[in-house]
Design a protein that fits this description.
The chain is mainly α and about 220 residues long. It contains 13 helices and no strands. It has one domain (about 1-215).
Length: about 220
Amino acid sequence: MLRTVGATVCLMSTLQQWLPDLLEVLRSPLGAVAFIPLYALWVTLLLPGVWASMVAGALYGTWIGSGLVFLGACLGAEVVFLLGRSWLREWARRRLQQVPKLQAVEQAVSREGLKLVLLTRLSPAFPFSLLNLAYGLSEVSLRDYSIGLIGIIPGTVLFCGLGALAGDVARFREVLAGEADPLTWALRVAGVLATVGVVVLVSRTARRALHDVESSL
């Protein structure tokens, strides 16, 4: 995770220095709207969403970035779910044979339904993109699957918050030069760190609850 934060800092610093016009376009309302289908495509291609979420946080801030990522992630997740349930079913089954934990989820979801969907979404132990495939192969209904996407909100806020922090670090030279208010910058950093603490607590609670579910199966 620290490497990803560092990479985001480097990316934002590079954009600010060499491509300020591109950065301005990305931060425009049109750029924000375009980010949603781009993120959905990222999810559909089964690429890890952590880096893209941090970039969203660095570009748009914690809360707007989280909203954009959530919409894009939901759109992409629905596409992957439907593909896994239809055209890519055999490929998805072969892909998940490499991840026994996800195979167990596929088998257990028929018993636990929405509860298991929510817990696995809250737990960072399950990769988001592959989990979408696993549920496509399972007996979970589209309704429960869609409602369960609410569970990605804490993780989304976490990674967008870290991205926002990375963006602030990239702009820290403005504070040193007296071009930005140090107190405002410090409060934003403190807010991100508080968000991290809350999300970690939620994830641990979900992990314990998920362990209880697995023990009862």
